[in-house]
Design a protein that fits this description.
- The complex is a heterotrimer.
- Chain A is an alpha/beta fold.
- In chain A, 30% of the residues lie in helices and 23% in strands.
- By secondary structure, chain C is mainly α.
- Classes of the chains: A alpha/beta, B mainly alpha, C mainly alpha.
- Chains B and C meet through α1, α5, α6, α10 and α11 of B and α8, α11 and α13 of C.
């Protein structure tokens, strides 16, 4: 499994009238070739900012990358000059956004919009680009591509527009596709279609996907690995099985526990996480989640917890895994789902950061 | 689309009819007549003149004659200039006004667009603040002040350009500049606002995410979309230029429609006043109509959905 | 790594006692909550243009009210011997680059040559009338017309637009058709015709502007009310049990007032401009009374030799219009909730 993207200690902040808002406060993760990594978290957790930072699409001012590295193909994207970034965007790394209604230019035919990256990055002639664009429309499942080619965005439905956006993103066979909540604005049935499409295309084009969502159902459907973000940091990361069947961080418990499934019994209580997300203008001193956690310890208010490694792929940022910490049980509903993970170490190991 | 066009044409005709009728009745209210500039005449002579102008006919008949005349393009005879047909007077005068108006619109629009786009791209820099301030100045300083200043400083003190009158091309420069200020300022402000909104939109972000260069994004995506609503202010712009021309022509002694209008006001030549009024109104309504149709054509959302936004 | 581990091992077990945050703390929102008006006021304060506009307007209004009383001349006092004097202010007459030294365009000290001891701060016009007094009187008239026109527009516009939107349906349709036709006629033409019929005067000029000016306000009010009638927050409030009164005062009015105030603020400079324009083409206030526009008109005649006669009222009228525009612009930006940072 080779790493295609490695993000190390990323810090992103925004200068506002009120002060510096630290949206991303030290994020480490990596993406392997061919896999789908899901980033989950609530609004304001920093997931969008992280991925926009990878693409260097954070508006500056007021945003800026405060520190850290983003290694891709031997280059640090954080320090790359803009001209070089333009060569990577749309070609090696692509992005699709949440709202298909506003993502497309309303006065340009969608055919032209698909042709743009083809002409720019692959130097195709107009004719070749046109042919390829029609192929792409077929690929994403739009019927009568030749007619559709000349049409405008307002003549498509939401789901169809999202397919167009996907076509644009995949036009140059990118190595990484970043999908920022691509199905959130769509109906559930359309959602399923789009997810199927993406999985299908992933195998066809052999692209690695970073999938941002707040919907765990979607995660279960598409992800290989999961990173859980809270308050601008990654609090837990692991394979999809590890996160669903053996979560270790109280926030993850909250997320998993608040999700009803077909097996949920009538009298079982769902977990609701009280409180609101932290104010990143003045980030809390210790563990950002401590204010809302039932399991908080005194030390959570003093010092930021370190990372503990539970298996080769499973990392948790919590004081609960410290030897001196009391043994705690996750909520009922999470316990019910528990499965023993064979790859777990006997004891959690203290580590510097997320590596693998 | 076709249905919409027809609807607009109908509106246009109705409005013109109403204006023509209102103009007719207003004329009847105004205290002026062809007799005002003649020396004392005997009652019979007065009657003869009044007859000639049709002013002794019963009102309904006058109205019908008037409307028929309009349809034929006859605007009556001037009170002031001894029986010259109003249409002839208009025809003589329209040239200079059209030239100034056209130059001001073209130059103003071009400059205005440029300034607006640059101000939006360089948002929150001194370039932005500076041009915004200049634009506010441009719409605040009345055209006659500006014209007077230009005339004084450029014409009298510096003697770079002729102070007034008409004849060679250089006579058109100062008046055009005076008229252009308003156009530039209005378009620049509008364009800037539009561009700023568009530059913050999702599809611009997507264009960037495709790896398209800054210039390409701005020109191919942002500007194109911003130009569409600009069309809608062409109507008010025309009015602005028309009214501006009234004073600018007077200040620079340009023999155009505007100057004639002011002259006629001062000499109570009501047929000419009405004639020019009708002309300006028709021009305005025509521009609005064209703008409506144009908008429907260039915005694909309307063109292909078949309705009004 | 090892040192870290050691440090962690050294953490006292005491620290690992459970400690839950109190309920309030977890729900605390650290930025104070501001209502719509407070928020807008803060943003308005920050807009330099708007502040400049407010300051300039205040200064001008001050002088408009008290200026004419500051010296002994009345606006209609004529003194032919003192005709066409450039501006002179005793205290500033030594500074040559300021235009207050009593010298004319050629640098010639007119006061001295005619042996005039009195000083006229803004100079005099060709009938020897004090321009300082006339200018500020004129400002009063211009401001009066502008504000009066804005108020009448406001009243008519709100009523028309409000009724049209409230009843909707056929009533709305007809009322809108009427507006469409009215709008098709160039404003200035109507104004000019109106004045031709009713003779120029403060009242007729104001009424002339009002006749066509209210359509803008009516459309805006109608648009706002229609939009609000159907918005979800109205429905939501009703669902929560809000009475009509509360709906109107706390929800509908604030949302309507914003654009209404802004439009009114823009009406004032437009009206002042129109009045000045009318004066310039001879349809304005008749002498000896003055408005800024008529002063510019009178001054224009002598622009070549005595530019101050036109420059002074021009400067004042430009400043008045500019400052209102700046304030209205600033208000518009401040009241737009989308621009909240």
């Amino acid at each position: 499994m080779s790493k295609i993207l490695e993000v190390k200690d990323l810090h992103v902040s925004f200068n506002t009238h009120g002060g510096e808002v630290q949206a991303v406060r030290g994020v480490d993760f990596h993406l392997d070739k061919g896999e789908t990594l899901a980033i989950v978290g609530e609004s304001g957790s920093g997931k969008s900012v992280t991925t926009k930072a990878i693409m260097r699409l954070i508006p500056n001012p007021p945003g800026f990358i405060k520190g850290g590295e983003m290694l891709f193909e031997g280059k640090d994207l954080a320090k790359l000059p803009e001209k070089d970034m333009q060569k990577i965007r749309g070609k090696d790394i692509s992005m699709i956004f949440q709202d298909p209604m506003t993502s497309l230019n309303p006065t340009m035919t969608i055919g032209k919009q698909i042709m743009e990256p083809l002409v720019k990055h692959q130097n195709m002639s107009k004719n070749d680009a046109r042919k390829r664009a029609i192929e792409l429309l077929k690929l994403v499942g739009l019927p009568s591509p030749e007619t559709r080619f000349k049409q405008y965005p307002h003549q498509f439905s939401g789901g169809q527009r999202q397919r167009v956006v996907i076509a644009i993103a995949l036009a140059c066979n990118p190595k990484i596709l970043i999908a920022d909540e691509p199905t959130t604005a769509l109906d559930v049935t359309i959602q399923a279609q789009i997810l199927e499409l993406m999985k299908d295309l992933q195998t066809k084009i052999d692209t690695s996907i970073i999938f941002i969502t707040h919907d765990l159902g979607v995660v279960a459907n598409v992800a290989d690995r999961v990173a859980v973000m809270y308050g601008g940091q990654i609090v837990e990361t692991g394979t999809v099985d590890e996160i669903f069947y053996d979560p270790r961080h109280p926030y993850t418990w909250g997320l998993i526990g608040s999700m009803p499934t077909t097996e949920t019994e009538g009298e079982q209580e769902l977990v609701a996480i009280p409180g609101t997300p932290p104010d990143l203008l003045n980030p809390p001193k210790g563990d950002a989640f401590a204010l809302r956690s039932e399991y908080a310890l005194k030390v959570d208010f003093e010092q930021e917890p370190p990372y503990y490694q539970v298996s080769d792929t499973h990392y948790v940022k919590s004081w609960l895994l410290h030897p001196s910490a009391p043994k705690v049980e996750p909520p009922e509903i999470v316990k019910l789902r528990h499965r023993q993970m064979p790859s777990n170490y006997k004891e959690p190991v203290l580590v510097e950061g997320v590596r693998s | 689309m076709v249905r919409y066009t027809i609807q607009r044409i109908v509106y246009m005709i109705i409005t013109l009819l109403i204006i023509a009728t209102a103009t007719f009745f207003l004329m009847k209210l105004l205290p002026g007549s062809p007799l005002q500039n003649t020396e004392r005449l005997s009652p019979e002579q007065q009657q003869i003149i009044l007859d000639k102008y049709g002013l002794n006919d019963p009102l309904p008949e006058q109205y019908v004659n008037y409307m028929v005349g309009l349809a034929k393009g006859d605007l009556g005879l001037s009170f002031q200039y001894d029986n010259r047909p109003v249409t002839q007077i208009l025809g003589d005068r329209i040239g200079p006004s059209a030239l100034l108006g056209f130059q001001a619109m073209v130059l103003g629009t071009f400059l205005g667009l440029l300034i607006g786009i640059i101000a939006a791209i360089k948002h929150n820099t001194w370039l932005d603040y500076g041009s915004t301030f200049l634009a506010v100045l441009g719409i605040s300083i009345p055209s006659f002040v500006f014209a007077g200043l230009l005339q004084y400083y450029v014409g009298v003190k510096l003697e770079w350009l002729p102070v007034a009158l008409w004849g060679e091309y250089k006579h058109t420069i100062l008046p055009t500049l005076a008229l252009t200020v308003f156009v530039v300022a209005t378009i620049a402000r509008f364009m800037r606002t539009e561009m700023l909104e568009i530059l913050n939109s999702d599809y611009i972000l997507l264009a960037k995410a495709k790896g398209i260069s800054q210039t390409s994004t701005v020109v191919k995506h942002a500007v194109r979309n911003a130009l569409i609503p600009i069309v809608t202010i062409l109507g008010p712009m025309t009015v602005g230029v028309m009214t501006g021309s009234l004073v600018v022509e007077r200040i620079f002694a340009v023999p155009g429609l505007g100057e004639q209008f002011v002259l006629s006001i001062n000499t109570n030549d009501y047929t000419v006043i009405m004639g020019i009024t009708l002309f300006f109104s028709a021009l305005f309504i025509g521009v609005i109509f064209l703008v409506d149709i144009l908008y429907g054509i260039i915005d694909p959302r309307i063109r292909l959905a078949g309705g009004k936004k | 790594m090892e040192a870290n581990k050691k440090k962690l091992d050294q953490l006292s077990p005491e620290l690992f006692q459970p400690q839950k945050a109190s309920g309030d703390e977890s729900e605390k929102i650290s930025r104070p909550s501001l209502n719509f008006w407070q928020d807008s006021w803060i943003r308005l304060r920050k807009n330099k243009g708007a502040i400049a506009g407010i300051v300039i307007t205040a200064i001008i209004i001050f002088f408009a009210l008290f200026g004419p009383m500051m010296n002994e001349y009345k606006f209609s006092d004529q003194n032919i011997r003192h005709a066409k004097l450039p501006p002179k202010i005793e205290a500033l007459s030594g500074i040559s680059w300021l235009p207050f030294d009593g010298k004319d365009a050629d640098g010639f000290d007119v006061y001295e040559s005619r042996q005039i001891k009195e000083t006229y701060w803004f100079g005099t016009d060709d009938l020897g009338r004090d321009l300082w007094t006339r200018t500020w009187n004129g400002t009063r008239v211009s401001l009066y017309i502008g504000i009066l026109a804005a108020i009448i527009d406001f009243i008519i516009g709100i009523s028309y637009g409000g009724i049209s939107a409230y009843y909707g349906g056929k009533v709305d349709d007809i009322m809108q058709r009427i507006i469409e036709i009215l709008v098709g006629i160039p404003n200035l033409i109507v104004v000019i015709l109106f004045i031709l019929i009713f003779e120029p005067g403060i009242f007729s000029i104001t009424m002339a502007m009002v006749i066509t000016g209210w359509t803008g306000m009516a459309r805006i009010v109608r648009g706002q009310v229609l939009q609000l009638k159907n918005q979800e927050f109205v429905l939501a409030s009703r669902t929560l049990g809000a009475t009509s009164n509360r709906l109107i005062f706390k929800h509908l009015l604030p949302n309507v007032m914003g654009p209404v105030i802004i439009t009114t603020m823009f009406t004032v400079p437009a009206a002042i401009y129109t009045e000045a324009f009318l004066s310039f083409i001879g349809l304005g206030i008749a002498p000896p009374r003055a408005s800024l526009g008529s002063l510019v008109n009178e001054g224009y005649r002598s622009i070549q030799s005595f530019p101050h006669m036109m420059l002074v009222p021009s400067a004042v009228i430009s400043l008045v219009i500019l400052s209102f525009n700046l304030m209205a612009d600033g208000l518009r930006d401040a009241l737009d909730p989308k621009m909240r940072k």
